[in-house]
Amino acid sequence: MMRSIALGTAAVAALTGTAYAQETIDVTLGVLNDRSGTYADLSGEGSVIAARMAVEDFNAEEKGLNVEILSADHQNKPDVGSNIARQWYEQEGVDAILDVPTSSVALAVADISNQMGGVLLNSGAGSTELTQGQCAPTTIHWTYDTAALAKGTGQAITEAGADKWYFLTADYAFGHSLEENTMNVVEEAGGEVVGSVRHPFPATDFSSFLLQAQASGADVIGLANAGGDTVNAIKQASEFGITQSGQSLAALLMFISDVHALSPETAQGLQLTEAFYWDQNDETREWSSRFEERHNAKPTMVHAGVYSAAMHYLRAVEAVGSTNNEEVVAHMKANSFDDPLFGEGYVRADGRVIHDMYLFEVKAPADSEGEWDLYEQKAVIAGEEAFLPMIDECDFSSEG
């Protein structure tokens, strides 16, 4: 609902001398993510900075929007995330929650948001369940999902001839979804899955899991995990000489922050799928330069997604003239966007944001011209091809 306040300076009508109080729309956004653990680098404080940049670039104050941004650490725990979300909606007047990496937390927050009329603008989680089995009219899934990752990396590697796969999978909703989606893509491309093993989330010692993968005889070890788990698995695979023995690693979800942490020497040649890369064009470079000035690192696609989602939400609030979220979400779905970071896209009726995805390869050190010059673009995956089709039960087009 709209909460209006009177500005300190009245607008004076020139002819009548009557003072009118200008009205402003109060908007409260909550950035909920991992600020201290496995996913802190890919989301964390960078997502808060991205949200602030969206408010500033939108010129919210000049357009009559008084925007407050809250932030909190969900610690990758669904109960913690749910409690924060409920408190934000009930006590802090939060209108929309952004980011929320860790799919188990995101699904819990999506449920709370649906119950309480808030909007989840998810950029950090990957599970397709957010717009498939556990979809909700108040959930918008912005940046990527496990189906798009599988369509990019899984299909490219299988079609290149490495067709025997073994999965090393994080044992929670995201890892399960990524393994399932990639398995389907591999088999559709003529490949074979010879086995899998699941590891605790988060994990530090991957030795036993990697040795099982090595013994499987697979061409490819698919890492169905993310963040620090992926980085540690790749480091330990290198230490064990796994990649030197003829097997390759497929990082099914990897961020530029992970590649930077590994170094190009270790990560070179890895193929990965992302929705955004800072060096794609003049607009991404300009925005990323401003982000880096505040955060001392280039943005991940999660940070870019938080910015883009916040911008589209604020455009809808301005157009609707309130934070009535039923009307705001309807406007977001009815109006496409041409985004400086994601290009052209739209919010589908089920809340899945459709935009292009990209297949990248990590450059060899000799080909890199700077600390963050890490990717070479190999392919564009059209949004309609990257994401799963909408299912009937998640078609909310008749609502709102």
Quick summary of this structure?
With 400 residues, the chain is an alpha/beta fold.
Structure explained in plain terms:
The chain is of the alpha/beta class. It folds into 2 domains: 26-144 and 281-356, 3-Layer(aba) Sandwich (Rossmann fold), CATH 3.40.50.2300; 147-279 and 360-385, Response regulator (Rossmann fold, 3-Layer(aba) Sandwich), CATH 3.40.50. It contains 13 helices and 18 strands. It has helices spanning 44-57, 78-92, 103-116, 146-159, 173-188, 207-215, 227-239, 256-262, 264-267, 282-295, 301-320, 325-334, 383-386; strands at 4-6, 11-12, 19-20, 23-33, 65-73, 96-99, 119-122, 139-141, 164-170, 192-199, 220-224, 248-251, 271-274, 337-339, 343-347, 353-354, 357-362, 375-381. Strands 1, 4, 5, 6, 7 and 8 form a 6-stranded mixed beta sheet that branches. A 4-stranded parallel beta sheet has the order 10-9-11-12, sandwiched between helices. Strands 13-17-18 form a 3-stranded antiparallel beta sheet. 52% of the residues are buried.
Keywords:
400 residues; alpha/beta; Rossmann fold; 18 strands; 38% helix; globular; disordered N terminus; transport; BCAA_transport; amino-acid transport; signal; Leu-bd
Number of strands: 18
Radius of gyration computed on alpha carbons: 22 Å
The poorly predicted ranges are 1-21
Going by CATH, what is the homologous superfamily of the largest domain? Response regulator
How far apart the termini lie comes to 15 Å
Helical content band: 25-40%
Q: Could you give a short account of the major beta sheet?
A: 6 strands, mixed
